[in-house]
Amino acid sequence: MLRSEGGKRFVIDEFQRLPTDFLDFLHAYHEKLNITLISSTLWLSSRLLGRGSPLLRIFEEFRMGLIDEKDILRFLITKEKGREAVEKAVCMREPWIIEMVNGNIRDEMSRMLREQKNTFVGLIGEISSEEDRLLKESYLAVLTAVSTGKVKSTEIASYLFSREILKKDDPSIIQSYLKILGQIGLIEKVSILNRRYDQFKISSSSLDLYLDGKYGFSELDVPQSEVRRVVDEKTLHYVEEFFRVLLSKLYGAKADKIVEKEHKVDIVLSSFRRPRLVGEVKWKGFVEKDEISRVEQILNRFKCEKVLIVPDSSALEREPKNIRVLDIANIKELLQAR
Fold this sequence. Notes:
Layout: E1 10-13, H1 21-29, E2 35-38, H2 69-76, H3 82-92, H4 95-98, H5 105-115, H6 117-124, H7 133-147, H8 153-162, H9 175-183, E3 187-192, E4 198-202, H10 205-211, H11 224-251, E5 254-259, E6 264-271, E7 274-281, H12 289-299, E8 305-309, E9 324-326, H13 328-337
Helix pairs in contact: 2-3, 5-11, 7-8, 7-10
């Protein structure tokens, strides 16, 4: 049938479940077929499309990632009020969540973390072939380490070694895991501008919450009140990450961080390894003057544009010196202008 329907495009979801000789069929008749193959199986990126595969150089690879920050916020900022628009944008970059949200996003995320455990397991996908349980365990351990706050490769390796998944505490062993998890979009690399290492983060905020071993959401029946407390706490971090990438796209600059012993700067936009913009996020209803002074002390060390992001400028007890305030109204203007 695939060969007889000329001019039509066929889409095959989870094609790896078909018989193995199907790949040989595709190799033999690919010039006569108009076909799209879809898979959520992570090991395909290194096996079915790798060296020696009959599909090598026949299919063009395309990774479907999360919804772009600009697109989702442009859509929501006209439909939701203030901070709720941003917080929904953070979570609704994952399309499967959109249909499940009917109210306040923090309430809904707390509910889903308790009720949708099978869905979160499905998000991880078949990380390795079913026959290779050890490899699958290693990938899951890497993801769990990152979600728990082990953001450097040395920290991730130590985490796996302490759980006897690695035989040696050696970060070079996990480089292939990090590479593949990055290729299929489960983790992202975060550049540290003033250091010779990168950090890693879970791409999906919901998956990050689910996997975080400190809270045990994936294993324990955690009370709803405790789930909500953690969602409140970690939402602040997710909003910060969202703005870091959003501003990099609006300004056309590279998104970085700066890490010092005494402090860190979580929003850094750079060109040729020089800061172009630095910023802090204070995602709360009231920002005291002492907290504003600490922001001034950190950001005013830099000779570039400086921003402080808040839900509403009225939240500030006083205006910061030499720092531009961006609230949701200003962000909306930026989205419309760029």
